[in-house]
Specification:
With 417 residues, this protein is an alpha/beta fold. The protein folds into three domains: 2-136, Rossmann fold (3-Layer(aba) Sandwich), CATH 3.40.50; 137-222 and 293-367 and 397-416, 2-Layer Sandwich (Dihydrodipicolinate Reductase, domain 2); 224-285, no CATH class. Helix content is 30%, strand content 22%. It has 13 helices and 17 strands. It has an eight-stranded mixed sheet with strand order 10-11-12-9-13-14-15-16. Strands 5-4-3-6-7-8-17 form a seven-stranded parallel sheet, with helices on both faces. The N and C termini lie far apart (53 Å). The relative contact order is 0.17. The model is unreliable at 1-6 and 366-370 (pLDDT under 50). The structure holds nicotinamide-adenine-dinucleotide. Residues 17-23, 43-46, 49, 68, 84-87, 89, 107-108, 134, 136, 180, 193, 262, 373 line the site of nicotinamide-adenine-dinucleotide (NAD).
Length: 417
């Protein structure tokens, strides 16, 4: 509703299923927007996590659940349900939520197979339910600026694009070698677990789904044959290569301590003795060359979209940051963060007719703090009413399914190669 140019937003209620790292991140942002969002329920099988999330909320009571069955048996508790459980839970949790008529903000990947994603899409349409995936990069100032440039028409017709993602070697080790997403079967293939954002962006910028695609990639580095001589199963067992090894788990007690926030509930208060015990017992103390991981550490894709645009993508553990190049008939865009640590991303436009180049400015401060996925975590929460409000932009169905089709097709191609 708008009166005299002022947009009046009605309060949107939220419930959260899965109160781990992601659930808490979004909820903290929403809990601060007390005039717009009210979190009314939180469910996690580790009840202290749901309680912690409830403690952020200052504008009402939060019903806390420790069991998904009881949570769903209570009926539809809010306008929107955030599902931030692990990859293997999303399909069943989303199905239960669709049946109750929830609009859903669903963590990616939507499900572990393309067939399940298609089923969710069809079910959501049938029940008139809107599902938005947590493609947080769409909500960052940088990628919004890219989209604005494309939509302005000044690139002319888009002909081809190239994207790259450097995961960062330690991030790869933490999440995709030692951590939650190390195995395709228990979590999801790397192209979904990490690069589903990029697959989504390619489809979003091309404004098309994929027609043909081929992909190659493998796990080359984090394998037992690459372990240093004499390396034990755990860094904490005394590794002769510890001083030179950049993956030494003792770094969790030093410069890599912030990574523990995502996997150790009491990381904020834990002392070195507590962290050492955690490293001796949890997957995060293991030698990166002696884990039970199978997801790739590098992958490439070459694709033709169904409107003729060609797209290429490179994912590697051995760089840090994302880059993007979009080539149009009248001009091209280049930008990103070639190295994540080098600061905020930049974007440049080149006009082919004049040969001039200019920097495309975007205001980080206007569009959210530059933190949490480049501002995307806060940006997606800020956009919930644009997605799910009474005049929300999402139609019933699984928004972002094109990006998932692209990613699953890439994994099928890679496995066949
Ligand atoms: N959008 C992004 O950029 C992004 C980034 C990281 C992770 N993710 C995705 O977000 C999801 C969550 O990741 P995370 O890092 O928060 O993981 P996490 O393990 O920290 O959180 C998952 C939570 O779900 C809870 N849970 C699991 N099964 C449950 C059940 N049956 N009922 C109730 N609670 C249950 C767990 O106890 C845990 O607290 C994953 O699917 C991951 O792939 C997305």
């Amino acid at each position: 509703m708008a009166i005299c140019g002022i947009v009046l937003r009605s309060m949107m209620t939220l419930a959260v299923l899965g109160c781990g790292a992601r659930g808490r991140t979004y909820s903290k942002v929403a809990a601060e927007m007390t005039a717009r969002y009210r979190i009314v329920a939180a469910c996690d099988k580790v009840v202290t996590r749901a309680q912690k999330l409830a403690s952020f909320v200052t504008n009402g009571e939060v019903a806390v659940y420790d069991c998904e069955k009881e949570f769903f048996a209570a009926g539809k508790l809010s306008d929107v349900l955030l599902i931030a459980t692990q990859d293997a839970n999303h399909f069943e949790h989303a199905k239960a939520a669709i049946k109750l008529g929830y609009d859903i903000l669903l963590e990616k990947p939507a499900a572990q197979t393309l067939e399940e994603c298609e089923e969710l899409h069809a079910m959501a349409i049938e029940h008139g339910v809107r599902i938005g995936l947590c493609f947080v990069l769409r909500y960052t100032p940088f990628y919004r600026a890219v989209k604005r440039e494309i939509d302005s028409g000044r690139l002319g017709r888009i002909i081809s694009l190239h994207a790259s993602e450097g995961v960062d070697a330690y991030h790869q080790a933490h999440s995709y070698v030692r951590g939650h997403w190390r195995q395709s079967a228990t979590a999801s293939p790397m192209i979904l677990a990490k690069s589903s954002h990029d697959c989504d962006l390619i489809c979003w910028f091309a404004n098309a789904g994929v027609k043909h695609l081929t992909s190659y990639g493998s796990l080359e580095v984090f394998r037992s044959e690459n372990a240093p001589a004499g390396a034990p199963a755990r860094c904490t067992d005394g590794c002769p290569a510890a001083a030179e090894c950049m993956y030494d788990a003792h770094r969790y007690m030093g410069d890599k301590r912030s990574w523990l926030r995502m996997v150790l509930d009491d990381s904020e208060t834990a002392d070195d003795a507590r962290i050492l015990k955690f490293l001796q017992e949890s997957p995060w103390g293991r030698c990166v060359y002696r884990c039970d991981n199978d997801v790739v550490d590098h992958q490439v894709i070459a694709a033709e979209m169904d409107n003729g645009i060609t797209a290429t993508f490179t994912m590697t553990a051995f760089n840090s940051g994302r880059t993007l190049e979009i080539y149009g008939t009248n001009g091209s865009l280049k930008g990103g963060s070639p190295w994540k640590d080098a600061g905020a991303p930049e974007l440049f436009f080149r006009d082919h007719r004049t040969g001039t180049m200019e920097e495309v400015k975007f205001d980080l401060l206007d569009e959210g703090t530059y933190a949490g996925h480049g501002g995307g975590d806060a940006g997606i929460v800020d956009s919930l009413d644009q997605m799910f409000g009474p005049n929300g932009s999402l139609p019933p169905g699984l928004d972002g399914i094109e990006g998932h089709r692209f990613a699953f097709r890439a994994e099928m191609s890679r496995l066949r190669a």
